[in-house]
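Q: What would this chain look like folded?
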Amino acid sequence: MKSICRLLLVIICIVALPLASSTSAAATLPKRVAILLFDGVDIIDFAGPYDVLINGGIDVVTVSPDGRAVTTQGGMKVVPQYSYTTVPDADAVVIPGGDTHIVHRDPATSDWIRQRYGRGELLMSVCNGAFTLANTGLLKGLKATTTSGNIDALRRAYPDVDVVRNARVVDNGRILTTGGLSAGIDGALHLISRLKGAGQAQFVAAVMEYNWQPEGRFLPALHAFRIMHQTVADADLAGVGHIEWLVSTSGDDRQWSYVWRVLSSLDSGALAEHIDRTLAEERRQMKMNPPYTASPGHRWSFVDSDGQTWLETLEVTAVPGHPGLHTVRLGVDKRLEIGLTQPTPK
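A: My prediction, written as structure tokens:
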């Protein structure tokens, strides 16, 4: 009887050897991530995750719709390794942002992304790459995020997506989205933790000297910065003034301000009136944060898309001893309650 048992054990071991060997080989196969490239892609959106992933021991391949060289948003020429038809299978696909006006609604790109998802690959968008991902229909009913300045636009364009401000990385299991620009680095570290474990992601962050905070404490989409006028920072003010330099831009979740030095032939009062009209017209044309009600002294109250009431103030003062030079401060403060505001720092 013992001889029969020993014989059975030997047979089981012999049969199990190929299976164990196959399982071990599968476990040691390198993970692969494909990064989408296209004309207008933002450099940090793909290069940040690329560097993180290769430092994590992941095989990274690049792919463009036709496999031809692309020109990034900053003018860099990049030659991808594959096209949609030749790129090998991967564990995940990264969809960067940038100038996405063409790729966003490109049927071939949407089909390719859906195909990769259908093969069981993870998907991760970076910045406004969320629009490209949302256009596939795969984000319907899921939570997602994007760069802070595009939160409201993504909500309007895809009302069936639950767009959130309070996360740098949103993980739905098979689909991840990140905030803007540097948030793609956080997303790539999160992707490493999914593919190779949290310890490996922590190690990569330390080696790269990146202050990774998986809980995502730095959330510009929650800061007052998100509702500031971005176009005011243009170097020219409609022919009446020229921004010499940006002195400061700072704040937190409740208040934010810009301070510029502006050279103008107008006196401070006239320059303030001109900027006042420019800002009000911008609010009306863009239909941003209605209502936008002006009050005396270059002060406006408005409500943002989350229902929060804000007070915006403009101050223009002449710089003593420098003819034609003015200090221009534009600030926003969240209203604490009716009739009260946060003190505006000078």
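The chain has two domains: 30-221, 224-341.
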